[in-house]
Amino acid sequence: MGSFIVYRLGHSAVVACGVLVLVSLMIHMVPGDPAQLMVGDAPVSAAQLQAIRHSLGLDRPLVVQLAGDAGRFVRGNLGRSLRSGRPVSDYLRRALPSTISLAIAAMLFGVLVGAPAGVIAAVYRGGWADAFATAFAVFGISLPSFWTGILFIVLFAVHLGWFPATGQGSLRALVLPALTLGWFPAGAIARLLRSAMLEVLHKEYVGVARAKGLRESVVVLRHALRNALLPAVTLATVQFGALLSGAIITETVFARDGLGRLIVDGILQRDFPVVQGVVLVIALIYTLVNLSTDLLYAWLDPRIHYG
Amino acid sequence: MTFMPPLSATVAMHPTRGERWPPARWIRRAYRRASPASIGAAGFLVVVVLVAIAPSALTRSDPNQMDPVAVLGAPSIAHPFGTDEFGRDILTRVVFGARTSLSYALLATAIGSILGTSIGVTAGFYGGRVDNVVMRGVDILLAFPGILLALIVVTLLGPGLTNAMIAVGIGQAPAFSRVVRGATLGVKTSQYVEAAQGLGATGARVIWRHVVPNVRHVVFVLGSLGYGTAILIGASLSFLGLGAQPPTPEWGSMLETARGYLQTDWWIGIWPGAVLGATLLSINIVGDLLRDILDPSLRLE
Q: Which CATH code for domain B21-60+80-298?
């Protein structure tokens, strides 16, 4: 266990460093002159171009730039927006709470709906509840979120008027985006839990529990579900990291301010530091989530050890 | 060193040809596992592919033909799916959109599977330091979830569907190499690989003649599911305005247009999304069936 933690921490550190270097390298992989690309067709003098290059650090040797950038990122200095001149970290600080709350709400929906759906589907295998839950899962995994989001807006906002179509701040405005983003993890969890439960329900200890005369609910929830839960827990935590990038689409559908709006605007305006900042934040959170998933897994299942 | 191989070694080199995966067994399994849902999905995909190959057989020939009189028209007999903000026939654009999505996603899947398989097979086969370095690189790329890697490439190369699909292909390569590497590790220890090496075959020859044919089915299953993901990410990028540029008919960008008219002309977005959704659903169902037939042990969660 101890060696596993050390190995896993080292692994994550390597990945995090790689992410830092790759994101620092990003701007140098632009074909052509980044400064010229940035200004586009706007009339600028050679001196102004040189000033932009200097502000981006492009006039220094590559290795110096990379080391400088990575060191800067580690200290939390993500540079300034090329458009507004304001620190990128300011933008991130404003965008992050909205995106995180959306991801958490979506995850809550995913777990609270997906887990019962998976269990019910397994218990009533072959019945109409199973068919319904399986359809729910397959639709959730397959349908593009920007389409389901539009359908939700048309149905629940425009026609029924139950929830606002756009905006943020209120809890009611979070409902439709969370449903849209949460359907995928709900479907994935339901599908995984269904197959895990089906496997476990055939085990001998479940038969023993039944033979003891335990109530079926106790058999299912206490004996079967506990053993089937492990892969679902992993899936759920890994999903949380993926939800952050999924939120980019959902935020656009519902016109919410967040990391998604930030990165899309950044790409369209060629505001490289902003894009770098968002990519860095999502990739590092994702790495952190994966790390805690593995540690959680090892803690939940003592049989797992690195070897 | 030269020696005559015993006959048995030559035979052992090809245990897979016609033995482990005979097509007869595939067909039997397909027949046994096919459900009404998977038959329907396969049928739908056949229709979509046919439509993508010959779109103008079904509808009018120009998806960009504007009609100033019929702007934002509701569904009618002349325009079964209605018309968009320029009076273009939505049915025609949905049909031509199939060609856009399907062909570009093919490009992405080709890039992803070829790149990923080469990396995975090489890393898995040679092991040691090569494996370590390559797989750490793959780990780093895997730290960019979902659409993020595609967004980075679009940032660097500029918006556009070709760039976006190159991005999607590169983005899928790490997942391919992960799984293919695992399969290669399993194949590497087989007797036929050992036999080939004993006969003095070079690494490249062993990989090409013995390893690749035996991990092919993995690539096939991953590719089918990756194809669906490529279509989805391509449409997502177009929805964000970073993929297909106007006036290219593309499902994602049609939905982006529809987003502006939800309060009044909501039906603009229904059909492009429904066809996209049904295509993705069908690819997932058929991909699952394919996995059940080719290799039930493959888990792609």
A: 1.10.3720.10
- Residue in B140, B235, B301 nearest the CB of A235: B301
Residue B36 Cα, gap to closest chain A Cα (Å): 13
Chain A positions touching B154 (Cβ under 8 A) are 267
Question: pLDDT under 70 in chain A at which residues?
Answer: 1, 31-32, 34, 37-42, 56, 302-307
Note whether B240 contacts A249, CB cutoff 8 Å. yes
Rounded to a whole number of angstroms, the distance from the CA of B3 to the nearest CA of chain A is 40
Among the partner-chain residues A246, A252, A264, the one whose CB lies closest to the CB of B146 is A246
| Per-residue 3-state assignment (H helix, E strand, C coil) for chain B | CCCCCCHHHHHHCCCCCCCCCCHHHHHHHHHHHCCHHHHHHHHHHHHHHHHHHCHHHCCCCCCCCCCHHHCCCCCCCCCCCCECCCCCEHHHHHHHHHHHHHHHHHHHHHHHHHHHHHHHHHHHHHCHHHHHHHHHHHHHHHCCCCCHHHHHHHHHHCCCHHHHHHHHHHHHHHHHHHHHHHHHHHHHCCHHHHHHHHCCCCHHHHHHHHHHHHHHHHHHHHHHHHHHHHHHHHHHHHHCCCCCCCCCCCHHHHHHHHHCCCCCCHHHHHHHHHHHHHHHHHHHHHHHHHHHHHCCCCCCC
Q: In a structure prediction context, what are the per-residue pLDDT tens digits for chain B, which is 301 residues long?
A: 334 444 333 334 444 444 455 567 777 777 777 778 788 888 888 888 888 887 777 776 677 766 666 666 667 766 667 777 676 777 778 888 888 888 888 998 999 999 999 998 888 888 888 888 888 888 888 878 768 888 888 888 777 888 888 888 888 888 888 888 888 888 888 888 888 888 877 878 888 888 888 888 888 888 888 888 889 888 888 888 888 777 888 888 888 887 777 777 777 778 888 889 899 989 888 887 887 777 656 544 3
CB pairs A-B closer than 8 Å: 133
- Between CA A180 and CA A56 the distance in angstroms is 38
Beta-bridge partner residues of A87: A80
Q: A147 and B273: CB-CB below 8 Å?
A: yes
Helix B90-126 to helix B212-239 angle (10° resolution) is 140
A223 and A205 Cβ atoms separated by less than 8 Å: yes
Residue with tokens 């849209």: A180
CA distance B35 to chain A (A): 13
- pTM of the predicted model, to two decimals? 0.81
Candidates B132, B148, B166, B268: best to mutate against A (most CBs of A within 10 A) is B148
Which residue do the tokens 């398989």 mark? B117
Shortest Cα–Cα distance, B4 to chain A (Å): 41
Interface of A with B in 203-222 (CB under 8 A): none
User: Where exactly are the structural domains of chain B?
Assistant: 21-60+80-298
Reported as a single tens digit per residue, the pLDDT across A113-124 is 998 998 888 888
